[in-house]
Amino acid sequence: MTAEAVEAAASPLLIAVAPNGARKTKLDHPALPISPDELAETARAALDAGAAMIHLHVRDDEERHSLDVERYRDAIAAVRQAVGPDMIVQVTSEAAGIFGSAEQMAMVRGLTPQAVSLAVREIIPDEAAESEGAAFLAWMAQEGIRPQYILYSAEDVTRLFELRCRGIVPDERPFLLFVLGRYTAGQRSQPADLLPFLMAAEGQPCDWAICAFGPLEGASALTAAALGGHVRVGFENNLFLADGTVAPDNAALVRQVAESAALMGRRAMSPVEARRYFAIERG
């Protein structure tokens, strides 16, 4: 490990909760939150368990993935009422096979959230999209909207830093999310899935977190914590605790990581610490 990685591995750990995602429903788990009130209740419980950020998805009237600005506003207002102004609310711009980059960027421009996750391969899918993507990311920087760049492979990581070198991605120290095991059989992640991402990012200035699919989500999160990263956990990608039982709620997945990471010397970041560290304005 580099000196920077050693220092990061002793620093507070950002835990983000991803409570629902774009595809799961209450048929997958009865405690999966859909409505603004359910999301607010989940945010409160996850905050108490150690989460400093909530990664927010909203749904339409048929509970399908939505990027509707007003639905986001309603959900954010409910969360804010439940947890106050400090917990970071990060919205998703995920396409989920439904939306194109124009619709994704239009949502962000209409909502102007404090934080948003962006899949690089969706927002800037090819060379032809680079000019528009650069203008969008520059506008976000001017507005103080903090992006987290979603990366699905080592190749995505390499391309992100190539775009940064050319000024298309403006962040001096981008905040990355490594999605482990997206293309593995059955989407069941392993901690070792992290290694190609780290190799691709070696020597580059960044902060990073992981999310992982399946019952080894917790093990993958602790591997990231040990190596100086941060984590996103929740029903979006996994319903199981480390012992193989179904988690009763999202807070249980957050608590499992927070308590285990503390044994490694990494306490959970508070929302105030997280906002200060990632330069995110108070909500």
Description of the molecule:
With 283 residues, the chain is of the alpha/beta class. The chain has a single domain (3-277), classed as Alpha-Beta Barrel (TIM Barrel). The protein has 11 helices and 10 strands. It has an 8-stranded parallel beta barrel, surrounded by 6 helices. β3 (58-59) and β4 form a beta hairpin. The termini are far apart.
> Low-confidence runs (pLDDT<50, min 5 residues)?
none
- What is the CATH top level name? Alpha Beta
The helix count comes to: 11
Supply Rg.
Answer: 17 Å
Helix/strand layout:
Elements: H1 3-8, E1 15-17, H2 36-49, E2 53-56, E3 58-59, E4 65-66, H3 69-83, E5 88-92, H4 101-111, E6 115-119, H5 120-123, H6 130-143, E7 146-151, H7 154-165, E8 175-180, H8 194-201, E9 207-212, H9 217-226, E10 230-233, H10 250-262, H11 271-277
Parallel strand pairs: 1-2, 1-10, 2-5, 5-6, 6-7, 7-8, 8-9, 9-10
Antiparallel strand pairs: 3-4
How would you concisely characterize the structure shown here?
This protein has 283 residues and is of the alpha/beta class. The chain has helices spanning 3-8, 36-49, 69-83, 101-111, 120-123, 130-143, 154-165, 194-201, 217-226, 250-262, 271-277, and strands at residues 15-17, 53-56, 58-59, 65-66, 88-92, 115-119, 146-151, 175-180, 207-212, 230-233. The chain has a single domain, classed as Aldolase class I (TIM Barrel, Alpha-Beta Barrel).
